[in-house]
Q: What sequence folds into this?
C-alpha cells in the first residue's frame, strides 16, 4: 500500500454526498412511512422517462470509477476492488431508495436501483481498464515526484474548489459566508422559544443583512479588491503547500486564475443570462485578480510550510471580509432563484461546497502545519523545501 494518501477517498465521499442530495431532494416533509406503503421489495413504476433512466445510469458511473480507484490505491486486488465497488454502489442505491418512502415528493423504484448498480459496475469497469493500461501506476509515480505524501485531501480540496464557485457568492471568489445561513437555521430551530428573541433582530427583514450592516458608509472598493484577492490566493497557497517542483507550481497557479475567471463567468451566465456573463468584471474585481496574480509570483519561490502559514492567514482574512460584505439585492434575488428554482436540484450541493470550502481548507492547512512532513529521498525531492 502506498504511503501517499489518495485523493480518491475524499472524492468518493463527495460523490456519495452529491448522489444522496440529488436522490432525496427536496429534503422536507419527512414522515414515517405507512406500513401499507413501505416494502423491503422496491416497486416497479408504471411509467418511466428515458431522461430519468439515463440519469440514474450516468449518476453512479463516476462514483464507481472513483471508488474502485480508491480501493486499488489502497492495495486491494482488482477482483476485490471491483466487487466492493459494485456492492457498495448497490447498497447505497438501495438505502437511498428505501429512504424515499419517507419523503412525499420522492418515489422509490426497482428500475432506479438496477440502473444505479449498473452505473457503478460500469464505473468500476472503467477504473479496472485504466488500471490495466498502467495509467494509475503512472499517475502514482508522477504524484510521488510532484506532491507530498499528505497531499490526498489537499488535492481533493483543489478539485472541488471550482464547484463551490458555481453557486453565486456575494462577491467574486468570496466563498465562506456561512453565518447568515446558520443564523436563519438557528432562528428556525428556536421558534416559539425564549432563545429566539436573542437571535432575531429588531427588524426581521434585516435577518440576511449580516455583519455588513456595520459599514454605514458603503463597501469600499479596496476591501472588495482584497476579498477577491484573498479568494484567489487561498487555493493558490493550498496548491503550493502540496506541490514540489516550481514548474508544477507555476502550472497550478496559472490554472487557478484561468479556472477562477472561467467558472465565475459561467456562473454569472447561468444566473443572469449569457449576455451578462462578464458583468462581474468590475474595476475592484480586476484589481483583486491582479493582486492575486502578483501574490502567486511570490508563492512560487516560498517553502511549503510558509505557504501553509500564509494560507491560514489568508483564509481567516477571507472569512472575515466576506462576512463584512453588504447585502446585494441582485445576489438576494439570485439566491432565491437557486433555492426555489431549477438550479437547486442539480447544483444545490455547490452551495454548501462554497460555504464550507474555506473552513475545510483552513482545517487541512492547520493539520498540515501540526504534522511534520516526512523526509523525502533526494532522488525524489524536487522544488523548494518545506
A:
Amino acid at each position: 500500500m502506498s504511503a501517499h494518501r489518495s485523493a480518491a477517498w475524499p472524492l468518493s465521499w463527495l460523490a456519495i454526498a452529491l448522489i444522496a442530495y440529488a436522490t432525496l431532494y427536496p429534503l422536507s416533509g419527512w414522515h414515517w412511512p405507512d406500513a401499507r406503503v413501505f416494502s423491503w421489495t422496491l416497486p416497479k413504476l408504471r411509467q418511466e422517462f428515458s431522461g430519468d433512466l439515463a440519469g440514474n445510469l450516468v449518476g453512479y458511473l463516476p462514483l464507481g470509477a472513483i471508488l474502485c480507484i480508491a480501493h486499488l490505491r489502497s492495495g486491494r486486488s482488482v477482483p476485490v476492488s471491483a466487487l466492493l465497488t459494485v456492492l457498495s454502489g448497490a447498497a447505497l442505491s438501495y438505502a437511498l431508495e428505501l429512504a424515499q418512502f419517507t419523503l412525499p415528493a420522492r418515489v422509490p423504484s426497482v428500475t432506479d436501483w438496477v440502473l444505479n448498480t449498473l452505473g457503478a459496475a460500469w464505473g468500476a469497469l472503467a477504473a479496472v481498464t485504466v488500471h490495466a493500461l498502467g495509467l494509475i501506476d503512472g499517475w502514482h509515480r508522477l504524484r510521488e515526484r510532484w506532491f507530498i505524501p499528505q497531499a490526498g485531501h489537499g488535492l481533493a480540496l483543489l478539485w472541488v474548489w471550482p464547484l463551490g464557485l458555481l453557486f453565486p457568492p456575494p462577491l467574486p471568489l468570496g466563498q465562506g459566508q456561512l453565518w447568515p445561513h446558520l443564523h436563519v437555521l438557528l432562528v428556525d430551530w428556536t421558534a416559539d422559544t425564549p432563545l429566539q428573541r436573542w437571535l432575531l433582530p429588531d427588524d426581521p427583514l434585516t435577518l440576511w443583512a449580516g455583519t455588513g450592516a456595520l459599514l454605514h458608509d458603503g463597501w469600499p472598493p479596496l476591501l472588495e479588491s482584497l476579498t477577491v484577492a484573498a479568494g484567489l490566493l487561498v487555493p493558490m497557497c493550498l496548491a503550493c503547500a502540496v506541490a514540489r517542483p516550481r514548474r508544477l507550481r507555476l502550472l497550478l497557479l496559472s490554472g487557478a486564475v484561468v479556472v477562477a475567471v472561467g467558472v465565475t463567468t459561467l456562473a454569472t451566465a447561468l444566473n443572469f443570462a449569457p449576455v451578462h456573463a462578464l458583468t462581474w468584471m468590475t474595476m475592484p474585481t480586476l484589481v483583486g485578480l491582479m493582486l492575486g496574480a502578483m501574490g502567486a509570483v511570490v508563492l512560487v519561490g516560498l517553502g511549503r510550510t510558509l505557504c501553509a502559514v500564509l494560507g491560514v492567514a489568508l483564509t481567516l482574512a477571507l472569512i472575515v471580509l466576506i462576512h463584512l460584505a453588504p447585502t446585494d439585492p441582485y445576489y438576494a434575488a439570485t439566491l432565491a432563484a437557486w433555492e426555489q428554482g431549477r438550479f437547486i436540484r442539480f447544483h444545490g450541493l455547490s452551495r454548501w461546497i462554497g460555504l464550507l470550502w474555506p473552513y475545510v481548507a483552513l482545517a487541512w492547512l492547520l493539520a498540515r502545519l501540526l504534522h511534520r512532513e516526512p523526509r523525502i529521498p533526494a532522488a525524489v525531492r524536487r522544488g523548494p523545501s518545506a
